[in-house]
Amino acid sequence: MADLWPFGAHADRVRRAPCRLRLHPGWPSGRVEVHVSGRDGVSSDPFRGYSGLQAGEETEPLRSRTGIADPPSRRTGVHPWTKALQCPFRIAGVSRTVKRAFKYRFYPTDAQAAQLSRTFGCVRLVYNMALQARTEAWTQRQERIDYNVTSALLTAWKKTDDLAFLSEVSSVPLQQALRHLQTAYTNFWAKRAKHPTFKSKKRSRRSAEYTTSAFRWRDDTLTLAKMTEPLDVVWSRPLPDGASPSTVTVSCDAAGRWFVSLLCDDVIAQTPATGRVGIDAGLDSVLALSTGEKITNPRHESADRQRLARAQQNLARKQKGSANRAKARVTLARIHARIADRRRDHLHKLTTRLVRENQAIVIEDLAVRNMVKNHRLARAISDAAWRQLRTMLEYKAAWHGRDLVVVDRWFPSTRLCSACGALAQKMPLSVREWTCPCGAVHDRDVNAARNILAAGLAVTACGDGVRPQRESSRTGRSSVKQENLRATKGIPVL
Ligand SMILES: [Zn+2]
């Protein structure tokens, strides 16, 4: 992530205040000037860099996960983003305000680290106790306990001797944990998610969420409740001009790195784009675009794999519970983190480019298909990457008023000739190139991407609310399970 920062190679050690960001009228093809307005008289030389989304560090808006902004009409079968067709923000030049999270690394003092670790523990405990209370109320008395009841329970817990330590940390993250549980239940009742499970000390993400009443944002410094000193944040990228965070989430990953994520309002200019692209996920983490371009993973991948294997082996040889095992575990976690960081960085750059250049982006709904075929590590990794790619495309397309169309997973994109529409025979995975009777020579993946694009465009042309019929031979599954608009209309008759 740090490599993206244009101020130098060792940027993660550079402390800077948030800068002012000014967009040129020609955004996004134009450039952006950043005026550094540091408190301690940092020079105000504007540097020139690419505008808009800087890859690597942005995260999806927190709200979209917590269910406050529910994905619209998932169950009606209409894909949410096809609605963007009537979206007023699509008019060129109109800008749009979105919630956007900016994530930075920070270096806590020993006291801050101890306080935050205690907070993480209390958050986990409160979440688990509230979950147990809700489960018991339902199984034993058929009662539904809501957020308000658990909030009252929390107050009562704090008054008991055993749990008096809950008052030693800020009350806001504990309340937020109860809200997160409420969201988990809302998603469960709406059949969007499974029943919530207990948070684990070892496996769950260590994080705490602070709302405005629990932190102070002044002169571009961030001070959390129950702390005297501000956090030592590395401002690796500018916050939007005049932004002030509404929610702050502190987390610590398995590699021992601390992060703070600031949720701010950001203005995103809606600029028109003419391109249309279809994307096919091939084997071995290769993406093919309908333009003929193929995108492979960054080249360091195999070196990382070797280091990973060695660290894994190292860990396995250590005595359980020993200090050396703990050290080996952190080493392994750092390698995992490095791989994940690189993959995410790569995906951010790719998705930002795709969203900037294209008005319509068509992808394939791969979930089930991959699960069936997944018997190799490479496939598992590309699965995760594909899911991440789709998530990024979804929120970036929504920000920029683009259309993201998801094509049915049973659509025979590989076997269909993109030139004449003929359906070829069953094709083993080893076939990388094939020739259609019509004379067209196809690259397997690019041809699939072209078919996906054609299918997706057929859907957007139909407009909203269209729910094409499935082929009768493929209707073996319940249609309720399908989440997205199926794009089988407009495909040549098979
Ligand atoms: Zn053909």
TrEMBL record:
Residues 98-142 form the Transposase putative helix-turn-helix domain. The keyword Zinc applies. GO terms for biological process: DNA recombination; transposition. The keyword Coiled coil does not apply. Residues 53-77, 465-494 are annotated as: Disordered. Residues 268-374 form the Probable transposase IS891/IS1136/IS1341 domain. PANTHER family: RNA-GUIDED DNA ENDONUCLEASE INSQ-RELATED, TRANSPOSASE. This is Transposase. One of its GO terms (molecular function) is DNA binding. Residues 386-452 form the Cas12f1-like TNB domain. It comes from the Bacteria. Keywords: DNA recombination, DNA-binding, Metal-binding, Transposition, Zinc. In the N-terminal section; belongs to the transposase 2 family. In the C-terminal section; belongs to the transposase 35 family. NCBIfam families: guided_TnpB (NF040570), IS200/IS605 family accessory protein TnpB-like domain (TIGR01766).
